[in-house]
Design a protein that fits this description.
alpha/beta, Rossmann fold, P-loop_NTPase, single chain, about 40% helix, binds magnesium ion, 3-stranded mixed beta sheet, 3 domains
Length: about 375
């Protein structure tokens, strides 16, 4: 049976263990009451409104495969206590903190997790496959294995993954949303976002030293957290192939230092490293780096249904502020289906911008009908 995981963001006023236990009990009771009847479609909003002590960002209900549950109708009533797993956490609101490991340009930025700014990302990313839950489950499982004290010489895990794919397909957003979800499930964490470009120094022979200092900083920071997610965007700039003839000696030293650094942090149990790249083809990325990755996932475009969902989200948001109108919801849905077909193959980034761009080309202003905008898209 599906285990129901309830991610429960607590309001800052809930602090003591007894307050937290009151909130978790209220969630269980509430679930048991409403599981007797048909589950209302507004369940998330209902629960959040009904339970004192929850943050207004709302509960997230997941299946045990860490994917959001769409329907609850198959769950038994009342729910057996063993099928409910409540994970309370606080959403952080701190500003991102740029840091430098050598008192020059910032080399990395720290963001405490789970963070309010990352909260909506997971549910607004749409893929034709289950890549979100696959990557989340994979990293959670590797963290679990590490915490069991496996012998590293027998069962080797680097907790290092690579997301590849064309520009604008959501690699960085996926990495951020997975970091957020991991920290929601585990209760807290820190995001360490590496500034790849600042690591290769203009001073000859400095890069290797800078990279060493950065990995030592990652080690020090991670010691204070149960979970540290290191995000390296455009990793090809850090680990471009050493076979490349134009690579200067400093670059080779830098790549060597990254590889040594990765080997060092794999021994830190709560650390996962997520890298992204859109240049893996044609041996641009060093083979020794690729062989250290536990998993490489190709991130695809959103597919027809995903295109429709992204367009719908944009339209709903513009409707909320009265920029677009929707006279007939059924008509809009069929137009979304058609636009989804026409937009298949385009990147998520392009689709997110499409409605606003077309609205502007149609003269902008308040009150344009959303179906007319969809009709004009990619036609
Ligand atoms: N599949 C998707 N579903 C919903 N939104 C998406 C999707 N793919 C991309 N987007 C949106 O497009 C924008 C760009 O995404 P992002 O920066 O993560 O892409 P990227 O793959 O990292 O691009 P690049 O290779 O240029 O770094 C974000 O606002 C993101 O939310
Ligand atoms: Mg990116």
């Amino acid at each position: 049976m599906t285990k129901l995981i309830i991610l429960a963001p607590l309001s800052p006023s809930v602090r003591t263990p007894s307050q937290i236990s009151d909130v978790t009990k209220a969630i269980t009771d509430f679930l048991n009451i409403i599981s007797r009847g048909p589950w209302p479609s507004t369940i998330k909003a209902d629960m959040t409104a009904a339970i004192d002590g929850l943050d207004e960002t709302g509960l997230r209900l997941l299946g045990s495969d860490y994917e959001d549950l769409q329907t609850f109708t198959s769950l038994p009533s009342p729910l057996p206590p063993t099928s409910i797993d409540i994970r309370p956490f606080y959403l952080r609101t701190d500003s991102p903190e740029p840091e430098s490991c050598d008192d020059t340009d910032p080399t990395h930025t720290l963001l405490p997790l789970p963070h309010l700014s990352l909260s909506p990302l997971y549910s607004t990313l749409h893929f034709p496959n289950n890549i979100k839950s696959t990557v989340t489950s994979y990293l959670l499982n590797t963290l679990l294995l590490s915490s069991l004290g496996l012998k590293k010489e027998i069962c080797s895990l680097n907790r290092l993954i690579l997301l590849t794919g064309p520009p604008g397909t959501g690699k960085t957003t996926l990495a951020l949303s997975v970091a957020q979800r991991l920290s929601e499930i585990l209760g807290s964490g820190i995001l360490i976002r590496i500034h790849s470009s600042s690591l290769f120094s203009k001073w000859f022979s400095e890069s290797g030293k800078k990279v060493d200092m950065l990995f030592n900083a990652v080690k020090d920071i991670s010691e204070d957290y149960r979970l540290a997610v290191v995000l390296v965007d455009e990793v090809e700039s850090l680990v471009s192939s050493r076979n490349n003839e134009s690579m200067i000696e400093d670059g080779v030293r830098g790549v060597n230092a990254v590889l040594t650094g990765l080997d060092m942090i794999k021994n830190l149990d709560g650390v996962v490293v997520i890298c992204t790249s859109n240049l893996v083809e044609g041996s641009r990325v060093d083979e020794a780096f690729l062989s250290r990755c536990d998993g490489v996932w190709e991130v695809e475009g959103p597919g027809g249904e995903g295109v429709g969902r992204i367009l719908r989200e944009t339209i709903d948001e513009l409707k909320r502020v009265n920029v677009l109108t929707v006279k007939d919801d059924d008509k809009l849905n069929s137009k979304l289906l058609e636009a989804g077909k026409r937009g298949t193959g385009k990147s998520g980034r392009e689709i997110r911008k499409a409605v606003v761009k077309m609205w502007s080309e149609m003269g902008g202003g308040m009150g344009i009908e959303a179906s007319d905008v969809l009709d004009a898209l990619w036609s």
